[in-house]
Structures are given as C-alpha cells and as structure tokens.
C-alpha cells in the first residue's frame, strides 16, 4: 500500500496544518478563475457607472467613495472600458503651457514657487510681449501641440485693463494659428470672461486644487467659494471650464474623493480635469512633502473617468516623475491629455520628442485641434449622447 495514505490521516494532517499556520501562510493551489467571484463582484453603483451612457451630476460622496475604493485593477479596467465608450482611446491632447508673467504673486498657495511670500529663488518678471507668445505658440504647433495655454502669476484680473488687452491679442493670434487656446489668470469676473470669449478663447483654467475640507490647509488668501465663483463666471460666459487638483498636498484619500465630488456635481462637468502631483519646491511650506504615490494618481484618474465620462482628463504636473509604463497605464485608465514642451510654468516638462517616441510605440496619436468640439457640446448638454466608438488610428506625431 505504498503511496496510499488512509483518508482519515490526510484529513487530520490538513486540520493540524490549518490550526498551526496562519491563514496567509497556507498554500492553496488552483487557477485564478477559482478565486471566489464573490470577492471581486462589483458593487451596484460601480456597475451603473460602468454601464452609463450619459454623465450624471448628482453624485453623492458615498457613491464616489464606493468607486474610488474598488480594487485598483478592477477600477482601472472599468475606467478603461468607459473611456473607450466615450472617447477615442488612441487620441491624446498635447498642450503646451507658457508662463506669460512669472512670480511676484500676492497669494499664499503653499505649493507654489511663484508666491512672493516664499523664498524660492524665482525671479519675478513683467508680462511677456505678444510677439514672444506667438513665436512660442508657433514652435508648439510645429511640434504637434494643438492647445496652447498661458498662465499669469497674480491673484485676479481686477484693474488689469492693459494686461487684458494684451492677453486678448495673444489669444486672438494663437487662435488664428488654428490652435485651441486656454488661459489661467486667477480670479475673473463675468465681464472679463466674456471679453476673453469674444477674443477667441477656448477654455479657462482655474483649479479647485483639493477638497473643500483640505483647502484651508493649502491656501488662506482666497476661499473655495471664490474659486467656484470664477468657475461659474467662466461657464456663464460660454467658455470651457478646465478645473482639477493637485495630489500630494498632505491630503487624505477622502480629499481625492472630495475633489472629484466638487467638480462632478457642478452644473456641467468641466471640459477638462487636470490631475497634478505636487512637484515640491524648496522654500515653500510644502517643499518637503513626501511624494504622492502612483496608485493614488491612477485611482484618481480612473475614478474621475467613471464619474465624468466625457471630460478630458489631463495628466499634468509631476508627469516627469512617472515611467513610460505608468503614463501608459494612466492613458489606459482614462487620461487623454498631457502637457508637453520645454517647460510647464516653472517646472520641468516632458518634451515633444520624448512624447513622440512613446506615442508611436503604444499606438497613440495627438488629438486634433477642436476634435472634441462635439464632445464639449455634449458635455454641457443633458441629452443622451450617441455612443459610437471611433476607429483607432496610429498616425505618428
Ligand atoms: S498658484 Fe497661482 S495664485 Fe497661487 S501663488 Fe501661485 S501664481 Fe499665485
């Protein structure tokens, strides 16, 4: 009877092993498909978001939390599925961001190199000329960027008539090149927003940065509601809203949920949601912050994609810290825009050549200017969209 153990002995040995070893040490052999399907079963709100054919604006924080807390592989895969339903997954918007007025800002944003309150070694400058902006935009266009963004470091546009006139000239000139144009100029009122719209502006960026709860730990010189008022002015003027946040400001995961909840419950979802990760700047109060982990970036992007299916999700500051594979994972999970060029405001930026290589390798292509114009109209409409996946093309940059 060699090799044949009495069944009772086998059972008692197994019992002994189970009693003496912690559960995680026990080895059980099987296939992945034998893993309990129950533990991976998506909750209903998750399924609803996965199956949705139109954006919704009445998200509760609890619902967003349920999606955010989904096991990351499930979440990223589902977000990728939603992304393919609402967008061409091969199309990535390439934006170049130029600082048109550097430093000397009166605000106290704890992460910012351009605040005059911190010793960061950054030299404040006056506003650049219209000609220098137009030549930078031309270079960006020649390298494949289809959106040109301009940022000025100041609190608001109050009393800046000359600046506004010059900026309108810049906007008009860039628009004449066939590019989309975005500006980020601090707080603006409705009249200023309308003037910019008339000059040809496509979008206005004004980030809410983080959740309402965490916001006072980051900035004290303007309130969350003031930020939301500027966003309302931009929307009312008929401009596209670009608003997002920064990860790594000492926040908790619940603040990522709060950030997404804020923008996902606006009267219309933002056309663009930038996801930045902090680039710590020595001399600022957040100069020694620990880096935000990649899984938080991926989770935030994937959740935003499921909750705001038509929005362009922008992989923004901090992209230089991501490997090629991490960036591609973000694209698979719903990110479809990047900043590219020589510099991103005051920090380093992934360059056009580098992006061209990645795009070619992974079958991506730069988004055309105004490719998402129809999408934007749908973003502000409550009508159910026609869902039709565009063919994937692999045109090189
Ligand atoms: S983020 Fe903008 S508003 Fe805040 S300090 Fe920097 S430049 Fe000023």
TrEMBL record:
Binds 1 [2Fe-2S] cluster. The cluster is coordinated with 3 cysteines and 1 arginine. Pathway: Cofactor biosynthesis; biotin biosynthesis; biotin from 7,8-diaminononanoate: step 2/2. It comes from Mollisia scopiformis (Conifer needle endophyte fungus). [2Fe-2S] cluster binds at residues 149, 182, 242, 314. Its EC number is 2.8.1.6. Its cofactor is [2Fe-2S] cluster; [4Fe-4S] cluster. [4Fe-4S] cluster binds at residues 105, 109, 112. Keywords: 2Fe-2S, 4Fe-4S, Biotin biosynthesis, Iron, Iron-sulfur, Metal-binding, Mitochondrion, S-adenosyl-L-methionine, Transferase. GO terms for molecular function: 2 iron, 2 sulfur cluster binding; 4 iron, 4 sulfur cluster binding; biotin synthase activity; metal ion binding. Residues 90-319 form the Radical SAM core domain. Pfam families: BATS, Radical_SAM. It comes from the Eukaryota. One of its GO terms (cellular component) is mitochondrion. Belongs to the radical SAM superfamily. Biotin synthase family. GO terms for biological process: biotin biosynthetic process. Coiled coil: none annotated. This is biotin synthase.
